[in-house]
Amino acid sequence: PGVTMSHCLPCRYSAMKEYLSELDKETKKALETFYGFSDGKSKVRRSVDKWNSTGGDFFQQIPLLKVEDFSRTATDLHSGQKRKIEGSVFHKDSSIVNSGDSNDIIGFQLCDANNSSECALYTFSSGVNAIQEWYKLHYMNIMAQIPLETKEKLSYSADDLLLTCFFDGLSCDKRHFTRFHHPLHGNCYTFNSGENGTILSTSTGGSEYGLQVVLYIDEADYNPFLVTSTGAKIIVHDQNEYPFIEDIGTEIETAAATSIGMHFTRSRKLSKPYSDCTETGADIPVENLYNKSYSLQICLHSCFQKAMVDSCGCAQYAQPLPAGAEYCNYKKNPNWMYCYYRLHEKFVKEQLGCQQICKDACSFKEWALTTSIAQWPSTVSEDWMLRVLSWDKGQKLNKKLNKTDLANLMVFYKDLNERFISENPANTLVILLSNFGGQLGLWMSCSVVCVIEIVEVFFIDSLSIVMRRQWQKAKKWWNDRKGAGSGKPPQASPVERQGHDNPICIDEDLPTFNTALRLPLPQDSPLPRTPPPNYSTLRLETAFTEQLPDTLELSQH
What we know:
Blueprint: E1 2-7, H1 13-35, H2 57-61, E2 64-68, E3 73-76, E4 82-84, E5 88-91, E6 104-111, E7 119-123, H3 127-143, H4 148-154, H5 158-161, E8 162-167, E9 170-171, E10 177-182, E11 186-191, E12 211-216, E13 232-237, H6 245-248, E14 250-252, E15 256-268, H7 296-312, H8 336-348, H9 354-357, E16 363-375, H10 382-393, E17 406-422, H11 429-444, H12 448-486, H13 513-517, H14 549-556
Parallel strand pairs: 5-7, 15-17
Antiparallel strand pairs: 1-11, 1-13, 2-3, 2-6, 3-4, 6-7, 8-9, 8-12, 10-11, 12-17, 13-14, 15-16
Helix pairs in contact: 1-3, 7-8
């Protein structure tokens, strides 16, 4: 399969500081105001271009708030003043974990730019979650304004990510990886993507014949507010599937060797009328924005993005960009955050209609992963391994590598058995008729011939009798009408007889035995009699011409 890997961070923090200077300043101010945290009075680098004014009014419009006693009063972080909260309150977590004062919670308020009375306050179970969500919201607003080519340069290159690579016992390099840019994870690299027409394969299971890579993480260059974990993410997928690394990616730990064993399973579901799945997604009225084979996740994300463009007038940054649309940013779309949260709330509650439109795929491939972790490098081999890897990095790195900057990854097949799961109908027409005949034979000693005879007696014979009666009535009616037309009066008989007792009634059907006995004899012919027997056959004929001697003697006496 294809193996996609990326950093947990979309871009190098050192390269993004000029774009994030105002946002970082506001975040540090929030930590100092709410929690008394301060990292010193270090100077914040400011850019001389348009990004110097990225914050300003924007942070004043959506500041962090400290809500007191679950009341409608909140303290504004930016101005330090208290203000009344209008609108609904949405708790992003099930429980409330307070910050500072036991009765205070952290959140932010979003209002409709066209109607200031339409507002919503979003609170969180922890100040960490509130600050991260608030930071991510502003981060997407800033990144939406940066061109794609610039973001690809700010992110990690293949040379930055890969230190060593082996596949099936042979060495590999960045030429075996295909790059694509993910909005939330930056540059991602797919091994064995198949874009060049060649798909690599292995004929032996085991870790020695799989993919082995050492990744350079560079923990010191991570954004401290955007992500709080260090490492890499990996996802195993088919070449025709889109890697949703943010949803189902597996995280790889630094200073450890992660072994991932795979089992391949191919599944096939029955379509209509047995299930509501779709074969190719062509019958789903949602445009596929990912240019990959259909899946339920692709349909849901594409449906939400379409609703975002229709309702808010711009596209959400984390999803692919539809044709003719542009990503939301506060300068061009000042109402997009309030619109996005309202729309996302409907999506989660299944009120947007996407869950009703999108269907599961009838056929799909799945790789079940088994993960194991070991300490790497070991204490006795740490010194020489880090020295050799630092030397391999060469002039690209001006410092000695630390083991927390590295992650060892192995992806391999545990066995080469392919598991196939398919659905078959429990009852078909043939099975239904077979079961019906078996039950009739078991409980009523009835077979198919018996059923045919019953149908013949009750339906065919009954129909023939009715049709015969109707034919006789019609024929009699026609004869009576014909006689009335010729002017001959009908002859009255002393005793009116009907049916087979009437000799006038001539039936073309052959008579039965009983009706033949009741038929009248012809008047001009004698009664038939039994002919006398031919007694001439009983006469004695002379068998011998001469009399035998013994008979002569007897006659003489």
